[in-house]
Amino acid sequence: MILTVTPNPSLDRTYEVPALDRGEVIRATGDRMDPGGKGVNVSRAVAAAGRHTLAVLPLGGAPGDLVAELLCEQGIEVAPVAVAGQTRSNISLAEPDGALTKVNAAGPELSAAESEALLATVRDRSAGAAWIACCGSLPRGLQPSWYAELVARAHAAGARIALDTSGPALLAALRERPDVVKPNAEELAEAVGRPLATVGDAVKAAEELRQLGARAVLASLGADGQLLVDDFGAHFGSARVETVRSNVGAGDSSLAGFLIAGGSGPEALASAVAHGAAAVQLPGSVMPTPADLNPSAVTVTADVPLDRALTEPVS
To answer: Which residues are catalytic?
Structure first.
């Protein structure tokens, strides 16, 4: 079982529009509603793979009820923590050329009691979990040290932690030695405070995160592939992708694939790459099933192309 923690979940509404004309009345040609948040997406990807997952998340108001209902419909067990504020609703406007305009709400402010209730629920429901995946931004009311506290408590209980967050929350949590952290290129550059122009730059940055406490770093480099840097060195994975339809949730699908495959080593990296490549070829935030995966398109090597320039360098 993979338990996910999403401190700031959302109800995501996506509207397909012919064009985004500012100041005009726009009539949608299609729409959908999904439960949102990085940890929620990891649970959705795990469930799509036919594996057991439990989603722990604070929920409030009618949007929170809808998030729980949508997750249950996808076969995901939900452990809700009731909060006084209303779960945020996010809006995405998708144009035919692939452009996506997103409006993300701030979300509710959690009280000290609600923060502690969230930590306690993770503790109470984590028995038997192969991994605890803590993902996404922190809502108002939670200090940057909140993830660090969660990692410390989880490790004290014998659980393994995968952390996908950024900024001060990531840096604060590193001191508690999360088992794997999963930054993208932009988050990796932010963490080390310098630009990344090559794959080698990303490897060096990942090694610095390990020096700060991360036991392993799984870094998404967008179209260039993914890096895994751990006690066994560095491995680089990439995959052939025919057509990119949407990158929404692709990183979350990658993390799910990594954890499903055991969460360590080149085989887990290959699973991460396969899941991420499958996700970008699906519409919206649809998560891939085993039938969508193409392992033969994936290459993983210890001969990391250090001098390769990143397709989208981070300044």
So the answer is: 252
